[in-house]
């Protein structure tokens, strides 16, 4: 852990903080402008929520102060009461849905990385052969098969026609985590396989590979010990966007498989116009993605000494 | 000859799909939206090649009209992305220095934002309008285009032949139009081909969630959504829209990949 | 018995025969050099023997005999051959910049395949010491990008020596390195060969390097071996016309007196140039004074990073200067404020002719652009102008419709020179203009430049790291070191009596036959 690295992390965290404040302000302004929102007079909510809202958002004060106090509360993890679920706090709802969503996204990411990298590496080791074309063809189809198509198809095949696997819930029945994880992971596995293969082909063309082979190393050792590291850099760079994509994907997968996660909450909130929940979830997702991007950057630094030098 | 047909199959298929969607009003004898509740959902038959939906509407007709909307969103939003991305990337790449650093920092920052979530948010706040959908999707997809164009312009600006052109006394305008843009065209075309499917995917995603195109209009994402609701009884209502979307995306990706391979192949060949 | 014996080696790459009937004998303690121009098959034949060609190249390799140490048939026993690699046979490949894995420390890379009894780090440090890297043990954890080109080449040699091989194969080990570094590396190879009783195969395009280092030379052309013998004999009495042709193409010291330099066309006085921006901004050219007259060829020599290219571009008004004065034809020259006539009069020819041509423009379009810009010719006259220009640079008119990628290196450089001539320039800067070309092509382009200078009374600044080339063409020579011109004299004087210690060092390191 060098000084330059700490400085970089501090700088990134500061940028992230500024960014999140901007995101919060943008979202806040959007919701402020929304007809029927918590800030317009003609809102239709229960009296109970009404009093809680007034207290939480200081509705008697000018918008800037409202925002400041909202931000202050958000920092402490308090996003106020839900607009549509009387008596429930937004942070409470997030806490309730978070475990399922995190677990789903994590499993899917791990599955996508393991499958994607190994398939990509196998394909790259024998370019042009069946071992390359078959999985890469499948990967191309995988990219074109979005979760909202793949999910229902899997449900149809494994749940309806064959009744092999449960098709709804999360952690209630044995094996009910399998289909949602595969549905969410498939597209990312396919994309990562393509990235890995392209990266490996690129690295295997470099002169340092001849040097490695001249040491008497075999094909597998050349790929694993030398080429793979450089080939994984594009994959690592893709982790940030992948995280954002996994969150969006969780909207779909949680809806299809009726998983009580925050992704499904988000879509329900969007339909219910549950503004406070949307505001809270947006900020939460933005924080999650920003932190993940930072993690991906650090991972790239760890992989590539030349980037470390440039610090 | 046969090989050439196989090689061009994705392109031919794509042209066929696009043409059929475009000519939908003349190809199909059925109205796209009028309901025939008495008819109900029917499996594929001679009269209705792909069957009918639960409101008795001809699925093929719905698919073709839905395809028009999906392709329209794909092309329009890609055009928005192209316009913003190319100008942004070209300016940053050509001017360079501090302006480049600031402009690319903005792109990096926007990259880190959960745009899909914002699109959902905007749909909620402003209602679900098609125009907003175009703009929102276009605004998300231009980032990658800007990065690609910027990298390409940057590489070209620093190449010897641009210095040579400057040394010959060509003006900035002449350098940009005669030397830089023609040499950027390849990657821009390739990436545009690859942007269309990703835009269409985003539209289908939003429509599937019920946040994009609204009934009685149809898009492939919406048809898939409706198909999912009744898939256990009427699986064709899910299968055909899913097939249409996947096949189109596959063809677009294949065409894009081939264009890229050919471009990279010729660049490598030029070095030897 | 020979350590390596190869008879009648043939290599086919994708249905094209790139090596035909090559036979080699390598003895312990001896250095065999394979020499040839680009595309002669010299590297390919060795990589094919060792099984190191890329699998996608679809190489078909055959030979009557390819024995290592009389025991292993290289082509018949791929498993046994791979066991030899890195243990009995070490390879030092071309391109020191990219032949090392950028993601691993050099210590790890050197000891990766070590089979001996010592601790790995100890072994790596010892080897680095042996190839002349100071404070070796403290550099084991450094990455390749933290070393200079010459140092990386030493690391590569250390890596090849890790298991004490008997045969060391060096593929263009000194190309792209400065002359002083090249001399050090050749001395190192020589010392290693005699200390360790190594057999060395040296692949090179540079006759002087081969003459300095080899015991036996094989000359290759178009995939065939055309000549061979000990260098002293071979270079005195070539056995094949091609060898004679190569020798004749070697740059010869210019004879005759330099023309009396007329009034200076371009004159720089105490010129300073900065490059980079922000914190990285630094002085690249430091108080340089230089003049070039009409019909005069001034050579500018120096090692990489000495600032010679920057000075050349500053003289053309392409880079802003931060101090000093610059005059062209008696008028002050200010970057960014050149008149159209001044811009046309100052032209540049680049090192890499392919990179300096727009890949999407045909030869005709490339040549027409400056004519149209500065001449305002109409279409009919334009075609004639282009043809005349092609004729001037001895470019067949049939090539006018081709793209740069469809031309050979020499033809590309002719196009680039033609494009510069189209502006009717008065001052031309040739920046390493022949460095990337094969020996025979290099001689042709040098002749062309000399002819153009005398025909058009051009002033030519000839920038090069290759002292022999500069000596063959320049009337006067300026020597640059770390941004400063340390010595300036007529070519004859400079070579006979160098004054500055740096010049002496450069000349001493220069090899000749």
Q: Which SSEs are present, and which pair or pack?
A:
The complex is a heterotrimer of chains A (311), B (272) and C (513).
Chain A: H1 3-33, H2 47-57, H3 63-75, H4 90-125, H5 130-143, H6 147-161, H7 178-204, H8 207-214, H9 219-256, H10 262-272, H11 275-303, H12 305-309
Helix pairs in contact in A: 1-11, 4-5, 4-7, 4-9, 4-11, 5-7, 6-7, 6-9, 7-9, 9-10, 9-11, 10-11
Chain B: H1 2-7, H2 9-22, H3 24-27, H4 59-95, H5 97-111, H6 115-126, H7 130-157, H8 160-168, H9 172-208, H10 220-229, H11 236-271
Helix pairs in contact in B: 2-4, 2-11, 4-5, 4-7, 4-9, 4-10, 6-7, 7-9, 8-9, 9-10, 9-11, 10-11
Chain C: E1 4-13, E2 16-26, E3 31-35, H1 42-50, E4 59-62, E5 65-68, E6 72-73, H2 78-84, E7 89-92, H3 106-111, H4 120-130, H5 149-160, E8 167-171, H6 179-196, E9 199-204, H7 207-213, E10 216-221, E11 224-229, H8 231-236, H9 241-249, E12 264-275, E13 282-293, E14 297-301, H10 308-315, E15 323-328, E16 331-332, H11 340-345, E17 346-349, H12 363-375, H13 379-392, H14 409-421, E18 427-431, H15 439-456, E19 459-464, H16 467-473, E20 476-481, E21 484-490, H17 491-496, H18 501-509
Parallel strand pairs in C: 3-9, 3-10, 7-8, 8-9, 14-19, 14-20, 17-18, 18-19
Antiparallel strand pairs in C: 1-2, 1-4, 1-5, 5-6, 10-11, 12-13, 12-15, 15-16, 20-21
Describe the structure.
The complex is a heterotrimer of chains A (about 300), B (about 270) and C (about 525). Chain A contains twelve helices and no strands. Chain A has about 300 residues and is mostly helical. Chain A has a domain at about 100-270: MetI-like (MetI-like fold, Orthogonal Bundle). The relative contact order of chain A is 0.14. The longest helix of chain B has about 35 residues, at about 60-95. Chain B has one domain (about 1-270): MetI-like fold. The radius of gyration of chain B is 22 Å and the shape is elongated. Chain C has a domain at about 265-510: P-loop containing nucleotide triphosphate hydrolases (Rossmann fold). Helices cover about 35% and strands about 25% of the residues of chain C. Chain C has helices at about 40-50, 80-85, 105-110, 120-130, 150-160, 180-195, 205-215, 230-235, 240-250, 310-315, 340-345, 365-375, 380-390, 410-420, 440-455, 465-475, 490-495, 500-510, and strands at about 5-15, 15-25, 30-35, 60, 65-70, 70-75, 90, 165-170, 200-205, 215-220, 225-230, 265-275, 280-295, 295-300, 325-330, 330, 345-350, 425-430, 460-465, 475-480, 485-490.
